[in-house]
Amino acid sequence: MASDLSMDVVIAGGGLAGMPLACALGAAGISVALIEPTPPEKLVTTEFDGRTTAVAASSARMFESLGAWDDVAPHAQPILDIRVADAESPFFVHYDHKDVGADALGWIVENKDLRAAMLPLLDALPTVRFLPGLRVTEFETENAWATVHLSDGTMLGARLLVGADGRQSPTRRRAGIGVTKWRYDQHAIICTVVHERDHRGIAHEHFLPSGPFAILPLTGNRSSIVWTERADLALHFMNLPDGDFLEELSSRFGNFLGALSLEGPRRSYPLGLMNARSYIAPRIALVADAAHTIHPIAGQGINIGWRDVAALAEVVADTMRLGLDPGDLSSLEKYQSWRRTDNAVMLAATDALNRLFSNDAAPLVAARNLGLAAVQRAPAVKKLFMRHAMGELGDLPRLIRGLPV
After folding, report:
1. Crossing angle for the helix pair 329-357 and 301-321, to the nearest 10 degrees
2. 87 pLDDT exceeds 80?
3. pTM for the complete prediction?
4. Domains of the chain, CATH where assigned
5. What are the CA-CA distances from residue 44 to residues 124, 142, 262, 267, 289 (Å)?
6. Is the predicted pLDDT of residue 16 greater than 60, yes or no?
């Protein structure tokens, strides 16, 4: 193998999945090259990414274990309660963090703040090479190595190449891994609003005929809006002047937090489901959005992606401690078997919830009302749902349990 630099692992994509994976592997003394096309100074701006993330309680433990949470925490808004209601129905479910003895059910964090907390960790880890401003242009896998070609002509040798490069993953495509996918006739409209009254750390999810409308508390008197709308109407709303757009948003938001104003730009993207037919190939592993995407109805997409990251980091670290090859298919099968079932369950659940609630057929409305009322009156069931949303159920990797890799 002729290459300019040899590493244990090369990660394509330095986003919210690639960064923590590089940090986790680097903390275990594994040599890593992290390839990211965007310069670091741009990664931490609202202009590059103005979205927010619902960080589950278990995912926060991962960031704490990596040493990033102290820098994230001042910018993180605790989710103390969650209120779920179906359109104009009088029935609802109220989840209270005190019922499970937790400090919070999760946190809402702006993506730029998560990235800003991880960049110093990447610089501080001696076995991590962060290579911003570059992209993977092609790769070959043969025998014991993957040869990875970068956009500046550099060639890297690696025992494992990880695709953490998003839902359109070039790594997945070049590896010839197919996907199962479908589009919903829905777009998500994302924006941030400022309001007069204190949200008190309460997240709201209203199920409307066009899809869920989520109000997620941010630090200060601000909330992040994730508004699911029919694709044709979403395009119409996105093209409205700010004043008209705010009027449409306010009619769905309500007036319980007082007058609203927009902060920053609006964004919109199409919604769909995707699951790679395999998460692995010879010398290749996929994580997070490169492996699967789900509907944002439960706010779990990146959280199951972080469980991918934690599981892969653990499998690679344990394999290398035994002196074995982390890119060998027998090693990678452990990662795939660990994550595929968990992810398949979440994909199926979010798909079913979206189809059930994005519908105003009378029998389904009646069934939803009965379901919400039943859950609200069943404390044990509510606690189970809260623990699941917090990411505390199942076979959890060490990082997700707050332990080092």
Report:
1. 170
2. no
3. 0.94
4. 5-76+109-181+276-356+394-401 (3.50.50.60)
5. 18, 37, 21, 17, 20
6. yes
